[in-house]
């Protein structure tokens, strides 16, 4: 198992600004995943973050909008850049592939006004 | 790509057994079926995983027929605290990490 801490748990941000979300894991992991969950919707994978290499983004997500850092095996950040109200969502980090039994953080509830 | 299909929502009374079925017609030979539970304001939580026939743990049972094109999550004697969204995953391909739409279960007193 893994314990994942995300910060902040929620935030209200002005449009045009950026927010960086932090994800800390209590053990070393090779891959970390970032998801977005829009209100009432399922989870959508944003990107996969490997330590020591650039993140791999899913279709519809780009590095300029969602830059990701992975400085070590226990930590990652996701930045939501130049925010608009459409970015209002819950952002979740996880470790482990979902099909193999993943662990998720509590999520960051972002509201853009 | 093993796309999954689940009912959008279900209601059940406390104490009843709930069965949620998921279809995954294009599941690959080596892929497992995995179920998650998500409470409001929390990340998903792994419930159970199986490959074929039946798997049971302290939370639920998972029934998978021989053709593996569907699976059924069974929750025995649900309580109000089982109200959540339940996601079925059937990995298809090397790196598919897709959650389906999920089933919103509401347990009624």
Sequence-ordered SSE layout with sheet pairings:
The complex is a heterodimer of chains A (113) and B (109).
Chain A: E1 4-7, E2 10-13, E3 19-25, E4 31-37, E5 43-50, E6 56-57, E7 68-72, E8 75-80, E9 89-95, E10 103-104, E11 108-112
Parallel strand pairs in A: 2-11
Antiparallel strand pairs in A: 1-3, 3-8, 4-5, 4-9, 5-6, 7-8, 9-10, 9-11
Chain B: E1 9-13, E2 18-23, E3 33-38, E4 45-50, E5 53-56, E6 61-64, E7 70-75, E8 84-90, E9 103-108
Parallel strand pairs in B: 1-9
Antiparallel strand pairs in B: 2-7, 3-4, 3-8, 5-6, 6-7, 8-9
Report what the structure shows.
The complex is a heterodimer of chains A (113) and B (109). With 113 residues, chain A is an all-beta fold. Helices cover 0% and strands 50% of the residues of chain A. In chain A, the strands form 2 sheets. In chain A, strands 2, 4, 5, 6, 9, 10 and 11 form a 7-stranded mixed β-sheet that branches. A 4-stranded antiparallel β-sheet of chain A has the order 1-3-8-7, with no helix packed on it. In chain A, a hairpin with a 7-residue loop joins strand 9 and strand 10. With 109 residues, chain B is mostly beta strands. The model of chain B has no long low-confidence stretch (mean pLDDT 89). Chain B has no helices and 9 strands. In chain B, the strands form 2 sheets. A 5-stranded mixed β-sheet of chain B has the order 1-9-8-3-4, with no helix packed on it. Chain B has a 4-stranded antiparallel β-sheet with strand order 2-7-6-5, with no helix packed on it. The interface between A and B is medium-sized, with 21 and 23 residues.
């Amino acid at each position: 198992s893994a314990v994942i801490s995300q910060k902040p748990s929620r935030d209200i941000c002005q449009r045009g600004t950026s927010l960086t979300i932090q994800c800390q894991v209590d053990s070393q992991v090779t891959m970390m995943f970032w998801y977005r969950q829009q209100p009432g919707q399922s989870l959508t994978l944003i990107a996969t973050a490997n330590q020591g290499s650039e993140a791999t983004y899913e279709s519809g997500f780009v590095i300029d909008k969602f830059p990701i850092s992975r400085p070590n095996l226990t930590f990652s950040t996701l930045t939501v850049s130049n925010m608009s109200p459409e970015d209002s969502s819950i952002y979740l980090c996880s470790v482990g592939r979902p099909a193999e039994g993943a662990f998720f953080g509590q999520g960051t509830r972002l509201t853009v006004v | 790509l093993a796309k999954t299909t689940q009912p959008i929502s279900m209601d059940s009374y406390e104490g009843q057994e709930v069965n949620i079925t998921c279809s995954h017609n294009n599941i690959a030979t080596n892929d497992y079926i995995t179920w998650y539970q998500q409470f409001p304001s929390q990340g998903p939580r792994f419930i159970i995983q199986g490959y074929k026939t039946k798997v049971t743990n302290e939370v639920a049972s998972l029934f998978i027929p021989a053709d593996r094109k569907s699976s059924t999550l069974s929750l025995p004697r649900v309580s109000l605290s089982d109200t959540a969204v339940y996601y079925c995953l059937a990995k298809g391909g090397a790196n598919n990490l897709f959650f389906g739409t999920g089933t919103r279960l509401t347990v009624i007193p």
